[in-house]
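Support request, priority: normal
Reporter: lab tech (M.K.)
Component: structure prediction queue

Hi team, I submitted a job for Metalloendopeptidase from Drosophila busckii yesterday, and the status page still shows it as pending. I've pasted the exact input below so you can check whether something in the sequence is tripping the parser. The sequence length should be 248 residues. Please let me know if I need to resubmit or if it's stuck on your end.
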Amino acid sequence: MCWLLLSLVAVAAAQGFDYFENYYNEIDIEDEQAEAKTRNALQSPLQRWPNPKLYYRISSEYSDEEAQNVRSALKTFDEQTCINFEELTEPIPSGQRYVYYKKSPQMCGTRVGYNPIPLFGSGSHDVLLTEHCLSKPGIIQHETLHVLGLYHEQSRADRDMFVVIDYDNIPRKYWSQFMAMSDKSTTTFNVPYDFESVMHYPKNAFAKDRNKPTIRALVNGEPVEREMGQVLGPSEGDLTKIRLMYCN
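Reply from support: The job had stalled in the queue. We restarted it manually and it finished. Here are the results:
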């Protein structure tokens, strides 16, 4: 399991920002080690959380507003899926696995799926969020969906049926960010390809020329430019996958 690198290019481009932050697990656009770091839903039950009730903790470095943004973002899963997030405020019981929302000056990212073996003796599954990421509920939900086991929508094993990637408009060191996952390790759960997924890159993600798309949709076999991806919140397709993973 690797730190998934989504770049906030996916958010920045969609929202018109002229800067980039880590967000595919999100890599910094200037990250020289991006290719080495990279690798739709995890197929192995061992990489899904063993119980739909997940405990979480919020860093004391968060402001009251930032902490409330996390709680509000997680409420969507409580209300629309069987996932139940319960905040830990008391000392963490020994051995308790929990999601830890931490502050980071540069990185927004997390590991994909459940890791049954805590790293370095820690029981936390860390989610790193910058001040900007903490201001966007959709980004918090995006990272939380990574925690639950979702990769990016344009990384689906069947994505070449729905999109075409313009590698000529992408720096070589970021080509790995557009790699399709294997159908041996991931599954779509037969959920239709979702251009509105909060897990989808925007059309000009990682573009050399921001005026030209790096991802085009295929319509009747022909590439066309269209909007894709958003940071408003999980789409119905995103939530359907979580229900299929945890609620049956």
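Residues 162 and 213 are 15 Å apart (CA to CA). The two ends are 25 Å apart (CA to CA). Let us know if anything else looks off. Ticket resolved.
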